[in-house]
Known about the structure:
The chain is an alpha/beta fold and 368 residues long. It has helices spanning 8-25, 28-40, 81-87, 130-137, 159-170, 195-211, 228-239, 276-290, 304-313, 322-327, 330-345, 359-364, and strands at residues 57-59, 62-64, 68-70, 91-97, 110-113, 118-121, 145-150, 176-180, 218-222, 245-248, 269-272, 295-298, 317-320.
Amino acid sequence: MIFSRLSPLLKLPLLQSLTRDALLRMDPETAHGATINALRLGLSPEQDHADPPELKTNLVGLELKNPIGMAAGFDKNAEVPVPLARMGFGMVEIGTVTPRPQIGNPKPRLFRIPEAEGVINRMGFNNEGHEAVFRRLKGLHVPAVLGVNIGANKDSEDFVADYVAGVLRFAEVADYLTVNISSPNTPGLRNLQGDEALRRLLGEVLKARSKAKVRVPVLLKLAPDLDEAALDGIARVIGETDLDGLIVSNTTISRDPVLDMENATQTGGLSGKPLFSLATQKLAQVRQRVGSLPIIGVGGIHSPETAVEKFEAGANAIQLYSALVFGGLDLLERIKRGLVAAVRAQGKTNVAELVGRTTDSWARGEAK
Ligand SMILES: Cc1cc2nc3c(=O)[nH]c(=O)nc-3n(C[C@H](O)[C@H](O)[C@H](O)COP(=O)(O)O)c2cc1C
């Protein structure tokens, strides 16, 4: 491809103008497909400098060159983990992948809320299934930490068995696995967050992990719609296991910040800017309950400032997705610069030292 020979300096504005202007005028799912294709074709900008030492992070025993990841759902089928890593993400989470291929919900199923820079999706785990995704990942070298997010087929008779199959299939190719029980778009899935169901699920998943050739770290991804009593229960169950960490959070079924806006009545999970406060409060409430267990903070990060706030609320690393739809790809570099500036301004040397400074006020709902 001729584009792959262009210098990064030329590619960045090229792809950015594509994402910002043309893509925002397209139907959202078509735009997403076009972005994946552009990345596959080598149109993506590549980071041409090493990340500063302030951003080096250890997470669940893994060395990250920086603590910023592409969240699950962008690259469901592991088509572009390498271009995403080369763009500068410190981690890339592919999936959700289910055992059997699945077409997902009828289209349209992805909506923008332009006024609030929000997104609503009810994709329903459209993906090519374990075997196709495994074949793509086997032998692939991704120059970042690679997460594989596993889920259950909608028509599965045994959700737990689907997660166990995911662990056994992907343990050898993933740097970490995410057990996603928080998508609002597979009926019954979020019931796995209840105490008894979660105890059984984690018991089986972690037993499967112990049988795999390598000990792959396992994280659990939670919904932001859990109340404090539910978080108490989850923390108790997790405390009985050797789960490696949590991801807080998935999309929300609530609509409070976007009431009366275009597309707000669409069924599905809300993400992007309007999710930031809720997801960050839940992150802080979870942090208060799990001590120093690693947590990846996700939900509504849309600026360097909101990235810094996630760490201060209790995240050890962050992921984002929706803001890239509205903000363009230079957001990643801006966030990195903002994090380094915050570390230096507080007289510290590493982003890990920002973690937890405002947990209590976020948990009480006193921060933004
Ligand atoms: C279109 C779309 C599809 C998503 N698909 C998945 C998915 O398959 N698995 C998952 O765990 N999260 C999925 N998510 C949730 C994101 O990973 C993330 O948790 C959420 O969007 C909040 O982050 P954000 O506000 O930065 O987008 C999806 C989000 C969007 C917008």
